[in-house]
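Protein Record: Sequence and Backbone Structure Tokens
======================================================
Tokens: labelled as protein backbone structure tokens, with as many entries as the chain has residues.
Task: work out the structure tokens from the sequence, keeping to the layout shown below.
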Amino acid sequence: MKKYTIEFCDYKYDYIYSKGPSLIIKDYLSEIDKLIMISDSGVPKEILEIYSSFLMGIRETEIVIFPEGEVNKSLLTVANLCEELIEIGADRRTAIVAVGGGLVGNVAGMVAALLYRGIPLIHIPTTLMAASDSVLSLKQAVNLQHGKNLVGTFYKPSLVYVDSLLLVDQDPRSIRNAIFELVKNALAIIPEDIRVLSNLLNSTNRYSSNQLESLIDYCIKAKSKVMKFDAYEQKDGVVLEYGHTIGHAIELAAEGRLMHGESVAFGMLVAARVSYHLGFLKGEDLITHNKMINLIGYDNKDHPTLSEVENSIKYLKNDNKKGYVSSSQNEIGLVLLERLGEVKKKGSSFITNVSLELIVDEMIKIIKQEEVLI
């Protein structure tokens, strides 16, 4: 068992990496009479059975399941869950236990933050993406028809409990989905560790529990570096959005065909080429992007289609970072790198306005494999 203290400004919470369910969770329930476990229909039945049985053994527990999929990451789902929780007796001495991936964590986080203006939240992430990325943040958000994560708030969990047994059994594509975010951390935050990571990462995307712990260590290190004094991710923490403006738009346009990490990987490739085109990023850094992303098995099948690129434009125009800097109708604000580990800044802004035409042009060039540095 390994215990971390996650610290973002004045916000602190414990993050425990262990093997199987642990009664240590009881230590965080001294003022809790009732637990409500929230999951979605995509969480494997075996996991739901293990953790519902475990939680029922330590407190009165109710189980609430909502339908899986990005279409259900919505205010309607949050409202329906809040109504259901009140019906089954939730009060201020109730804790929400989110058992699932990043989508479950965000929806449950919104419910916990809003119901009674805030009740305790415990995360038990069932995917490496959630364990290494989404729970390492105060952000809780849901989607609107106009785009991804457009409505949300900041809310601190009481505890994150990561069960390594749930992670090692994930399929390779789901593991790779999370590793793309780790690669983002290497390229944009801690490039000095790229050589070490290159020796650890592989295209099979199968890792032991100890290796996964090392990868999570790295993600905690990276996030803590930029969020220790920026809990709301509006200054140094904006770098965590590298590749995400394009990635989120592509993810929505692909309607589930591409996973979040795959979409972000494509977004980073595009952002790197845009920065190179504008004269910021050097060719050798562009090559490093390609090598790191290809190292974990990214290939042409992971690209969006041309129609998905076309459909992504409406989402690009409504990205949740819109307004950080003033822009015209045909400009999109991107997080760009000036060099590995250093964001391109203009004054105090971490966002660079880029013409929509250039962004779309670079997306199409990657898909058609034009002018790619390898």
About this structure: The chain has a mean pLDDT of 96. The chain has 13 helices and 13 strands. The domain at 172-367 is CATH 1.20.1090.10 (Dehydroquinate synthase-like, alpha domain).
